[in-house]
Amino acid sequence: MRKLTAVASGIAAIGLSVAAAGGATENVSPIYGVSLPEGYRGWQMITVAHEAGKNNDIRGILGNDIAVKAFREGTRPFPDGSVIARLAYVYKSSPENDAVFPTPQSFVAGAPTNVQISVKDSKRYAESGGWGYGQFENGVANQSEPLLKSCFACHTRLDRSKDLVFSQYSP
Amino acid sequence: MRKLTAVASGIAAIGLSVAAAGGATENVSPIYGVSLPEGYRGWQMITVAHEAGKNNDIRGILGNDIAVKAFREGTRPFPDGSVIARLAYVYKSSPENDAVFPTPQSFVAGAPTNVQISVKDSKRYAESGGWGYGQFENGVANQSEPLLKSCFACHTRLDRSKDLVFSQYSP
């Protein structure tokens, strides 16, 4: 069994390096080719939000150093290299917390739902306002083209001064 | 006018250094002597939450490296040196976001309300389960002793396995 596992790992490793070299099956979004940036979970927080409705999630919005600097300084449009990571979690009430509060009031982050990545590259993504998008579930790039097309379709409806970004920085 | 400002700044600077030396008027919480840690806004995110009821806020919970490592590895009790920063903002609906969504659904962070700091030091804070607390509004330590006493009174009602901490890490 140990031997089989080792063989299977070997095959997986070969598979990964082929993918990395060939590009065809890399873990990137369709249309934009956006990957999950290394270390994004350790990035600084831009803000937090709750989306009710169909999403019903609570989210933390993180940014790499370029994005966070631009948010803090109000630089618009965002400079190339800005990356925003939107981490969403199931929005759920917390009976544990409510038990120690005066009233039921506590809503917390449950299981992660998905991570959306926005990458600013004004040349590469000129056709979508300079932004490329990716959505990841459990670290795997969602391959739905209609889903990815909906990113720009929605962001482009924002006021132009926002450079296609929903989030505002929370001090 | 410029001269007056310079003199005023000079006085303020002297005031600050006296405070730092004397300790009596430092910007620290009563009971615990907890100050606002330098650079806390850049710390990594632990999780997010929404408190309805009287608080009516949305919050990001950040931690220093020691705290975040303990959260990730499930280390309980938290090691000395762990610091948790809970940043709360007015919970508000976003007409701007809702205008581009199919339904009104978007709630975002408004103005900051307060920042609560929890510092783990099992010796210094032995009488409060190893945690010292501070609350800051606009960077200024709240001097209400009843408020500060309510921190431990509330946290101590949690299950013992949580080491007096509400937050759970969101991956």
TrEMBL record, chains A, B:
Coiled coil: none annotated. Residues 37-167 form the Cytochrome P460 domain. Keywords: Signal. Residues 1-19 form the signal peptide. The keyword Glycosyltransferase does not apply. It holds the Pfam family Cytochrome_P460. This is Cytochrome P460. It comes from Rhizobium tubonense.
